[in-house]
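ok so heres the complex, two chains, lmk if somethin looks off
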Amino acid sequence: MSARLARLLAPRSVALVGCPADLSRPGARPLLYLKQHRYPGQVYPVNPRHGEIGGFKAYPTLADLPERPDVVWIGVPGDQVHEVLEAMARLAIPSAVILTAGFAETDEHGRRRQDGLRRLAESAGITVLGPNMLGFINCWERVPLTFSPAGGLEPLRPGALGIASQSGALGGIVVNRAFDRMIGVSAMVSTGNEMGVTVSECLEYFAEDARTRTVALVAEGIRDGARFRGAVARCTEAGKPIVALKMGRSRAGRKNALTHTGALAGSAEAFGAVARQLGIVEVDTLDDLVETAGYLSREARVPRRGVAVVATSGGASIMTADQLEARGIPMPRLAPATVEALGRLLPDYARTRDNPVDVTAGLSEDLFARVLEALVGDPGVDGVVAMVTGARGVERAENVARVAAAAPKPVVPCWLGGSLTEDGLGCLDARQVPTFRSPRALASALAAARAFDAARACWIARRPIPRGRPAPLPVTGPLPYAALASLAVRCAVPLVPERLVASPEGAVRAARRLGFPVALKAVGPGLAHKTEAGALALGLADARAVRAAAVLLLRRLRGVRLEGLLVQRMVTGVEVLVGVTRDATFGPLLVVGAGGVEAELRRDTACRPLPVSRREIAAMLGEVQALRVLDGWRGSPPRDTRALLAAIAGVVRLAGALGERLLSLDVNPIVVRSRGQGAFAVDLLAALVPADGSPRARPCCGAPRVPATPVRRIE
Amino acid sequence: MSARLARLLAPRSVALVGCPADLSRPGARPLLYLKQHRYPGQVYPVNPRHGEIGGFKAYPTLADLPERPDVVWIGVPGDQVHEVLEAMARLAIPSAVILTAGFAETDEHGRRRQDGLRRLAESAGITVLGPNMLGFINCWERVPLTFSPAGGLEPLRPGALGIASQSGALGGIVVNRAFDRMIGVSAMVSTGNEMGVTVSECLEYFAEDARTRTVALVAEGIRDGARFRGAVARCTEAGKPIVALKMGRSRAGRKNALTHTGALAGSAEAFGAVARQLGIVEVDTLDDLVETAGYLSREARVPRRGVAVVATSGGASIMTADQLEARGIPMPRLAPATVEALGRLLPDYARTRDNPVDVTAGLSEDLFARVLEALVGDPGVDGVVAMVTGARGVERAENVARVAAAAPKPVVPCWLGGSLTEDGLGCLDARQVPTFRSPRALASALAAARAFDAARACWIARRPIPRGRPAPLPVTGPLPYAALASLAVRCAVPLVPERLVASPEGAVRAARRLGFPVALKAVGPGLAHKTEAGALALGLADARAVRAAAVLLLRRLRGVRLEGLLVQRMVTGVEVLVGVTRDATFGPLLVVGAGGVEAELRRDTACRPLPVSRREIAAMLGEVQALRVLDGWRGSPPRDTRALLAAIAGVVRLAGALGERLLSLDVNPIVVRSRGQGAFAVDLLAALVPADGSPRARPCCGAPRVPATPVRRIE
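and the predicted structre for the whole thing:
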């Protein structure tokens, strides 16, 4: 639990610095919202020119307050923020919420000013939310300490959905949309430039907060990758799904993310890898965020074995089946007893009595309820989807709500119509039956429940491959191939039988020992892409061919610094690419794909942050479409996936041995032979950062250098 | 123009057979809706037991009416429908709308009954809509002749969106949702079992109807593939986009489609191929259908060169950029003059002055309008997206609407909030400024405009490869390889140099003439998949190897019927799969993908119905991800795509020469060598249907055989 954030979000008293006396001005919003929602603590407007604001006694300075407030809201122009923080430090006030913009999201000048604030806050032990955000709304304790118009929504609906958003505007919109659907919110916290509190800290808070069951996350860029992963893991372990809208996937979007909250948007692929490992549900629209997170916050039961679908329109049943099947949600065949029961209940012209069941729209309410109950009673399904069209609104809605309340498994309605069915929808929303407006949203939410459930089980049971101890590495210059290969052998990476030699004669001797045919590769610090450099000869079938090729290679590479000639026995099989890259935010990532030159052409790869377990590696292999050939395909035999798994585990240990300085490691390809015949790494390539450099890119290094006057950002 | 459908949709008089006197019963809906909307023609309820219904004089039978009505609405039970049609035939009434269900969508019995109705209607020249649908709504002429509750919506909004739906319920929902957004509808026609009028005929109607600018199509399965393609082409040529929700993609969905409106759902891939060729925009939810079709029905200008984006929140700008970029919509850099103008208008803290522009939320209405105008004035953009957050609703909406009305290019707003911003949204909807609620929907609609525009240009300019004359084929039995190969040569398919021989000695002689290395393939009627049958030897480098391989093959295939041994010169290069398959609905389809065994592993193929133009073939090659290697990749040279195009054109001609009996043609692979060095087909395989069989699957062949009493389906 982030105790400091918990204190910040539930203050017994709030001072508002920069609160105008004219209540029609935007700056008065936090005061108005606190008043409107009868915030139970003390409110102290701080304003040197007025004795009273909005019915609250106002004070000239923080030092004049009758008590030390728990939180100070700072809404003054940028050049006065430092001063307020200084006063807070003197008075030992623990927490600040800084609305003001014009700091690290702007330019070098703004970054320096923010750094100054950070140093001051850290030395004084002040917890800071912001700057450049819209505050927070704590619905349970009635603390709408926010600039967002969502703070004025009536009523504040306390509930189980936690919201963490870097963007203040979007955080407010999520609250608004959730309330529109009667989805209760525990707290919405916007973090802006994250000088102090980050979304990771919010996740730590929500992981421990007993009233929060699900978190909606709106993120542009994660600043603290390791803490983020730890916080997500805590949520996952606590059984609280995180539904994330990760923005900044596009070039233009990333550029704006830099100037918006000053965050590097980071690689969407790396975020996706973390999400997959830890069970974060990724969505790409606000609608999906609210629908999915709202559903998961109210329904914890998971349709593991699938659902029964009942629809009042054939078209709707088809559409629903399409959407469920596309997301892998089973619609099992119904039990014979259920089919029989349906036969008794349904009229003759309702033709489909198995899943999905189309009851047609003419059914009476009584019969409809009995059909629903029959489906709920089917022992083979873990939920029932009720797809309703037509205008028989409130009556049908009450009927469905009644069955849902009594059912031991989720009954999930979806209402397709427009204004004609709004009354039914409102009725279900009001009765807290999570209801959808579209089969796509419904299917996405059910798929999210299943995906989180599966990822959580995998995460809890995982036994990561030990990282091992870092090996001693040369301080400067590249790692010689011989050193890399010997390290690989120690890490149990199965290298193809090979010898590093110095001359054509040496190559011939090595080839004779290894057995023909062999491959010949020139090895040297500048020869990363061997096929392009003409430093490679394949399929050399006898001594003459080896000698000729060696002579040719050496002649072609005259003047190039060489470590030697590598002679390798040729092996054939399915080629698998395995690599480790370092993400600036999330550290080393394992990547697996199909080998060969086409690997880069397609985005058909799987990715996970290290450390990983063997089970995760196996799951990764299953995610790569092109690697289905491993199971045997069109007459080609099934491959030695067990050996492949062991080889990849070796690569993971090798990455660990290369330690913090590893920038990238490529083993491309590992050749996988038939079952029982092994898998062999035939190419190793590692890039290290010099011992004096930092392997992490510095955040904001690409930001513009134009100076600007940092002023208040109103939003 | 479908003149008969135009007459059906605009009757001067309507007879309602089966209209109950009790107006609270569902069967009275058409009468109530006609009355409510002051249908200008005559309404004749037909009911033998009442003299007046709902204020209209009722008549005992059709023969008693004072005039011959233009349309008869038939809402009687299934066993009475035939009788009504007979009466219509006697009275020469031209059109019927049959609500009643229980026909071809149920079972063999129902199919036979429907066939009886069809024969009667055809011989009497009666145009039939239905059975098993919910009628139609003609908004311009005020004819809500429908059972759908959408017929009771107030007011009916005439507009430019035509709706054709096989599902009656979904057709009504589309109308409801369109009206909710103030989107006007020209007509909604539901077609159900399509005994007479099909959605294809609806498209023909909308293509000619001057009031319709865009069509929303909800389809489960197309029954008349050729007519459908013709009708879509007419719409495309007329510049009227079709936005289609094609259902029945899933196994379960297809099953329900059969029992719903009795249509075979058909292959989603084939529909997709037709869509791509003719510019149909495919969507997969009702929301997208309404948003995209509604937009296109009101905005004909196309953002060909991209758009400028202005947002009042950084988060919103990022989200929008993500969505636009994901759909390939350019956000060009702004002209220097525009950037300069923005510099004058925006406060210092608004940091992004190029596309996308984040103005922050604090800007005054006056400045916001001037920013919009500056962007509209930028010569490099074809539209402006205005992304608005915050609660400044109606004022901002009126401002945007004012600028949009004066602008010579589209200004497209998107409002992100929930209930707090509904007033602004309503204001824009009311002023007929197409407005979105989500950047995803906005980006999809703009992408649809661009895709239709590009597809239309391509379609209008296309010069299809001539089909050629069908060749004479053997009446029974398979086509010998020699005959197929000689036909291929005549069609200018560039076969790799090859000889068909009968003995090992013949193989050696052929290999010497062709030049080593060669490949050897056993050819015979049962040897389709040569790699699996062990009927293949590759890379034979000299005469000895050829002889040994030929002896081995012949020994291994002893007892197998062989046409001979095919000796081919080995060629290497990029392998491309080309095939023609026959879809039951849409006829022959050309398929292109990457060659080799992995082709089937991935869905990375492109597909078009024949005939195709060379330009379409070139576009197909661009759609296949794996074929990007053709342009050169990682040191490998660019390939002879010109020769590849010519080779594929040859395959298309070959398919034409094989004519109506062609079931499938596989040329896998065509090997494409370096630029200037040609492309060679190294494998040909054709499957024909026997001359006495039909190449088309019969619709409904897999339907259940359970007898049932066909009764009225109420929905």
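quick notes: Chain A has four domains: 3-296, 300-433, 467-496+571-715, 497-569. thats all i got rn
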